[in-house]
């Protein structure tokens, strides 16, 4: 079954398309990476799916219907940096808001059950020991696990993760990718993950959406991440190299990007 | 301030009985208690949302409103509420990006303060009126003022209770809350009105210029001592109550303004909290 299906989809800001004519589908349980240069419109795709923006042309369906705001089937981790605040709030409380933060009232009487549930979710992402730490004192990798727990708290069927690997070192990148894959498998969640560096994702990827040059190329990693496919997408000579360990390097994109700045 | 024959004794209960036989002290304690509770609760969200500057601006709008009310012979609370609520809605409609609004808020703030100066210059009792608006005049509170404060306070607490969880969500994690369907813009506007009303009733106790003493400092102390929002709100209220009562108590015996005692004691508590926590940021 299609979780997401796009046909002739165009999207952007204020009526000006960032990309157009996108056709792709994403199946249940797939792990999808969204790649491409800054400003290409990767986050815009998330905003469409969250119902925070409308397509400029074409259609997109999510679970067979038009996207709408406040969809409980989506778990969202935006790109953000948590700045230290004057007010310290523990990680468990943020996860708790992921469970029932959208409900009106004081939440009196639900506290105990919510905290138990939040603890269970934190344990599922291996962050139970962070439960009572103040958010402002956590490292980048620790925060990403808390944000993942917050997103999972709504029992989503689709996870949208915007640059969760930014600011992580290579080892932590790998850990987080494996964690997301394990959780997704266990809970049967489809994952869309925006990233810059493809290599830590290669072992887990089912599909790639490559956003560049006003278009989106979609397919299996082996189909999209080739010299021919990316040269076609960018309309400029791009070379994809693979080393003996299967690591991928995309060459020529930087030059292309500078030439179009 | 009325002068009475006060003799401090070690027995605090009899001291309290002594001061509470006077209407002005009873009114002051009642209004101070209501304001401390409301400001403590609202202050927690003000600090969490980083809305201190907006609160500051609204208190200046209150200055213009109170000065205008004095000029036209109206109850100052009417002018306060009118101007702060108007200003609050205007600020909320400037957009959701709080960080980027400093310049707009600052521009309006200066204009309103100037308007207040103009009103007050037209008013005969220039110095007294200005002084009580800027620094508070809790010992001059009437029975009707206490009632109005009570009603406004209950209203604010009911609104906060109704929006507590989504407001917390939107304050702590706006993007995720918005994606989950929380109406962040509407909540922002409602919260600005909440600040407006809270500021208006707090002005009577600490005045326009010292509003932070009840709406920011207690919450900042609570934010350092707690990890859970519910506990944070509770500690913020307790701190606001303790310093308000302490200020009123001292002012009965010493010939200095209540607001001075409140601001000083809350500042000392803040310093002690920071010292006790060492170099924790």
Detailed description of the structure:
The complex is a heterodimer of chains A (261) and B (281). Chain A has a single domain, classed as Rossmann fold (3-Layer(aba) Sandwich). Chain A is 31% helix and 26% strand. Chain A is built from eight helices and eleven strands. Chain A has helices at residues 42-49, 91-100, 111-124, 140-152, 170-187, 221-224, 227-234, 253-259; strands at 2-13, 16-27, 31-35, 57-62, 74-77, 158-162, 190-194, 207-212, 215-219, 239-242, 248-251. In chain A, the strands form three sheets. Chain A has a six-stranded mixed beta sheet with strand order 5-6-7-3-8-9, sandwiched between helices. In chain A, strands 2-1-4 form a three-stranded antiparallel beta sheet, with helices on one face. In chain A, β8 (207-212) and β9 (215-219) form a beta hairpin. In chain A, α2 packs across α3 (111-124), α3 (111-124) crosses α4 and α4 (140-152) runs parallel beside α5 (170-187). Chain B has 281 residues and is mainly α. Chain B has a single domain (12-276), classed as ABC transporter involved in vitamin B12 uptake, BtuC (Orthogonal Bundle), CATH 1.10.3470.10. Chain B contains 13 helices and no strands. Chain B has helices at 12-20, 23-48, 52-71, 76-93, 102-122, 126-135, 143-172, 174-179, 184-206, 212-215, 217-225, 229-253, 258-276. The longest helix of chain B is centred in the middle third of the chain and has 30 residues, at 143-172. The radius of gyration of chain B is 19 Å and the shape is globular.
């Amino acid at each position: 079954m299609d979780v997401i299906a796009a046909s002739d989809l165009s999207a952007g800001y204020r009526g000006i398309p960032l990309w157009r004519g996108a056709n792709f589908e994403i199946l249940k349980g797939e792990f999808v990476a969204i790649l491409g240069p800054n400003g290409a419109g990767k986050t815009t795709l998330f905003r469409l799916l969250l119902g925070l923006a409308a397509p400029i042309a074409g259609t997109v369906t999510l679970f067979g219907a038009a996207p709408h705001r406040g969809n409980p089937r989506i778990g969202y981790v935006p790109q953000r940096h948590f700045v230290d605040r004057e007010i310290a709030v523990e990680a468990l409380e943020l996860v708790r808001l992921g469970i029932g933060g959208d409900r009106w009232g004081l939440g009196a009487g639900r506290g105990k059950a919510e905290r138990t549930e939040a603890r269970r979710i934190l344990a599922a992402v291996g962050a139970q020991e962070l439960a009572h730490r103040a958010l402002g004192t956590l490292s980048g990798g620790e925060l990403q696990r808390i944000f993942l727990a917050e997103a999972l708290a709504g029992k989503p069927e689709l996870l949208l993760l915007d640059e969760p690997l930014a600011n992580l070192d290579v080892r932590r990148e790998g850990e987080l990718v494996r964690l997301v894959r394990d959780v997704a498998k266990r809970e049967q969640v489809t994952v869309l993950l925006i990233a810059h560096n493809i290599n830590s994702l290669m072992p887990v990827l089912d599909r790639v959406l490559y956003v560049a040059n006003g278009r989106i190329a979609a397919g299996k990693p082996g189909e999209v991440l080739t010299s021919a496919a990316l040269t076609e997408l960018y309309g400029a000579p791009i070379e994809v190299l693979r080393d003996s360990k299967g690591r991928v390097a995309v060459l020529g994109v930087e030059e292309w990007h500078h030439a179009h700045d | 301030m009325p002068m009475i024959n006060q003799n401090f004794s070690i027995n605090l209960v009899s001291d309290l009985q002594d001061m509470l036989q006077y209407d002005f002290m009873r009114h002051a304690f009642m209004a101070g208690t209501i304001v401390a509770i409301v400001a403590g609760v609202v202050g927690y969200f003000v600090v969490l949302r980083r809305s201190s500057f907006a609160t500051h601006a609204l208190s200046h709008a209150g200055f213009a409103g109170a000065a205008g009310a004095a000029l036209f012979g109206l109850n100052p609370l009417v002018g306060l509420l009118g101007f702060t609520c108007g200003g609050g809605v205007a600020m909320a409609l400037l957009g959701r990006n709080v960080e980027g609004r400093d310049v707009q808020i600052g521009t309006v703030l200066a204009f309103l303060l100037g308007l207040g100066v103009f009103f007050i210059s037209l008013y005969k009792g220039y110095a007294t009126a200005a002084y009580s608006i800027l620094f508070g005049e809790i010992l001059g509170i009437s029975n009707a003022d206490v009632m109005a404060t009570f009603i406004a306070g209950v209203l604010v607490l009911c609104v906060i209770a109704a929006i507590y969880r989504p407001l917390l969500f939107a304050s702590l994690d706006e993007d995720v809350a918005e994606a989950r369907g929380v109406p962040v813009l509407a909540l922002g506007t409602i919260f600005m009105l909440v600040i407006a009303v809270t500021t208006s009733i707090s002005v009577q106790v600490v005045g326009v210029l010292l509003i932070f003493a009840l709406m920011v400092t207690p919450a900042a102390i609570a934010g350092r001592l707690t990890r859970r929002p519910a506990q944070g709100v509770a500690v913020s209220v307790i701190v606001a109550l303790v310093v308000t009562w302490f200020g009123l108590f001292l002012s009965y015996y010493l010939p200095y303004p209540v607001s001075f005692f409140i601001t000083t004691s809350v500042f000392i508590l803040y310093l002690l909290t920071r010292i006790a926590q060492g170099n924790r940021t």
